[in-house]
């Protein structure tokens, strides 16, 4: 596996690969890799000639400085894991090179960024859109893989690709979970043993809501989920929403046969976690 730090080097390397007719798959990450990331990488390795992974803890998408400082960084172990799944190129740039000047770019995603992560993490999607645009320019992938765990991020990236005419196919890959249902996430590494057990409450809350879908009104389901989390020590619910899965707009009611997304964000101790479930109302 090639490990590349410099922007000029990755540009030259990718240009050469594209010119030789290779199909390029790309998995952007912030590192501290886990099985969720590895599945995205395996899918890319299977569906493309060359797989590139980026590891870059992007400062502009953190609305909370403490979250940025404490974000897990495990580069040596990450390199071993990348080799084990057949990744061809790791791009791990320095922030000074990605941001040669303070970023002044302003994106606007309209209603899509007015809810959930966009509402609760001001500036977050502007930082994501900025860095994803830069990474797409550097890597020039044919396909880019993103996890369903960050459902709103996938929708933002799809809108970005359309708005800027990037010639990139965006693939949404299903959420990979621990055996007890907790969605894998790099931030899980910051949970202590007790909090790690408690953290399954996000998934349990989504299951509880799913069981009531189509039987109880949306408002009642939301109140039930709020009460479920309110009873738990060290847990603070930020939002629970039932939304349309593409526009991410909250639904006041649901119809038979409709596809909906159940989305949740909550603090467990000081660690903020998110999760979601896609549900077809015909199947509940
Ligand atoms: N459990 C998972 N299943 C599938 N994809 C995942 C999972 N966790 C993360 N991803 C995807 O991996 C890519 C890189 O994510 P990132 O490096 O931020 O890791 P993360 O585990 O989401 O960490 P955190 O949420 O703590 O930032 C994103 O597209 C993300 O959606
Ligand atoms: C897409 C991404 C790598 C941009 O920094 C990040 O938001 C992530 O890891 O999901
Ligand atoms: N995995 C999404 C990136 C973030 O939470 O900042």
From TrEMBL:
List membrane-spanning regions: none
Q: Which reaction does it catalyse?
A: (R)-pantoate + beta-alanine + ATP = (R)-pantothenate + AMP + diphosphate + H(+)
Which amino acid positions bind (R)-pantoate, per UniProt?
61, 153
Q: Which keywords does the record carry? A: ATP-binding, Cytoplasm, Ligase, Nucleotide-binding, Pantothenate biosynthesis
The pathway noted for it is: Cofactor biosynthesis; (R)-pantothenate biosynthesis; (R)-pantothenate from (R)-pantoate and beta-alanine: step 1/1
InterPro entries tied to this protein: Cyt_trans-like, Pantoate_ligase, Pantoate_ligase_C, Rossmann-like_a/b/a_fold
The record's annotation in Gene3D superfamilies points to: HUPs (3.40.50.620), Pantoate-beta-alanine ligase, C-terminal domain (3.30.1300.10)
Q: Name one GO molecular function term.
A: ligase activity
Q: Which Pfam families match?
A: Pantoate_ligase
* Subcellular localization, as worded in the UniProt entry: Cytoplasm
**Subunit structure, per the record?**
Homodimer.
Query: Any extra detail in the entry?
Result: The reaction proceeds by a bi uni uni bi ping pong mechanism.
Q: What does this protein do?
A: Catalyzes the condensation of pantoate with beta-alanine in an ATP-dependent reaction via a pantoyl-adenylate intermediate.
Indicate what this protein is called per its UniProt record.
Pantothenate synthetase
Gene this protein is translated from:
panC
């Amino acid at each position: 596996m090639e490990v590349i730090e410099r922007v000029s080097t990755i540009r030259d390397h990718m240009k050469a690969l594209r010119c030789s007719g290779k199909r390029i798959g790309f998995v952007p990450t912030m590192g501290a890799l886990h099985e969720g990331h590895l599945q995205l990488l395996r899918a890319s390795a299977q569906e493309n000639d060359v797989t590139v992974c980026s590891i870059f803890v992007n400062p502009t998408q953190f609305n909370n400085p403490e979250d940025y400082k404490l974000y897990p960084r495990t580069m040596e172990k990450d390199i071993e894991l990348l080799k084990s799944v057949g990744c061809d190129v790791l791009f791990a740039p320095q922030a000074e090179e990605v941001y040669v000047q303070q970023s002044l770019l302003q994106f606007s995603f309209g209603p899509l960024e007015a809810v959930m992560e966009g509402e609760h993490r001001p500036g977050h999607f502007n930082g994501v859109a900025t860095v994803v645009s830069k990474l797409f320019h550097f890597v020039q992938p044919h396909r880019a893989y993103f996890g369903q765990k960050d459902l709103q991020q996938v929708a933002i990236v799809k809108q970005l690709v359309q708005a800027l005419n990037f010639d990139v196919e965006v693939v949404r890959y299903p959420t990979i979970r621990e055996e007890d249902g907790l969605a894998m996430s790099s931030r899980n590494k910051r949970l202590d043993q007790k909090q790690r057990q408690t953290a399954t409450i996000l998934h349990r809350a989504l299951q509880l809501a799913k069981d009531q879908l189509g039987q109880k009104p949306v408002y009642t389901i939301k109140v039930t989920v709020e009460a479920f989390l309110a009873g738990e020590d060290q847990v603070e619910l930020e939002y629970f929403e039932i939304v349309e899965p593409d526009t991410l707009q909250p639904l006041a009611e649901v119809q038979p046969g409709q596809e909906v997304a159940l989305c949740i964000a909550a603090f467990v101790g000081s660690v903020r976690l998110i999760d979601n479930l896609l549900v077809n109302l015909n199947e509940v």
